[in-house]
Amino acid sequence: MKNPKKQLEDLEDDPDFDDDRFLHEYRKKRLAEMREAAKVQRYGSVIPISGSDFVREVSQAPPDVWVVVILYKDGYPECGILLQCLEELATKYPATKFVKIISTDCIPNYPDRNLPTLLVYNNSAVKANYVGMHNFGRRCTPEGVALVLCQSDPVLNDGQSGSEPSRQAVLEGVRQRLIEKVVRDHEDDDDGSFSD
């Protein structure tokens, strides 16, 4: 059996236990991670804009940023429902920019019958548009809206620059939350269905 004092001295001399080197490497790695995270745009809410802001906030957004625009008017229940869904999605996907604009501020004489309308922009171009609520199913939920938005393009992303693994992770997460919600709703319906 080795002397504990000798073991300690051996460990102190061992380069594998060099705390300074470890801390330096850890700090360097952590700073690189923080720099990378800082590159990712962070929005996290639905930003109200006016007609004069549209070009700057939407058309001139960086090419790697997806922008979801809702055309709405106050007092329309469908607009309120879709706005609530977008608020939740904006917090879950802060790398995607969500903006809201009163429909007639964006497009003069825009028909109220088309409300709410979602426009999806990327790289200065409209990639998709969804007029009315029928696109999002009978019961409009954040999960349902997310599935529609991600059907053809990685509109919602987790900040990993729209890479395919990132897109798949987002879609899988949305599907999982949708399944969990359906199960919860079904269980809630079952709880009240028994009567004497």
TrEMBL record:
Cellular component terms per the entry's GO annotation: cytoplasm
One example of a Gene Ontology biological process annotation: protein folding
Family matches, as Pfam families: Phosducin
Span of domain Phosducin: 15-133
SUPFAM superfamilies noted in UniProt: Thioredoxin-like
InterPro entries: Phosducin-like_chap/apop_reg, Phosducin_thioredoxin-like_dom, Thioredoxin-like_sf
Family the UniProt entry places it in: Belongs to the phosducin family.
Protein name, per record: Thioredoxin superfamily protein
Organism name: Actinidia rufa
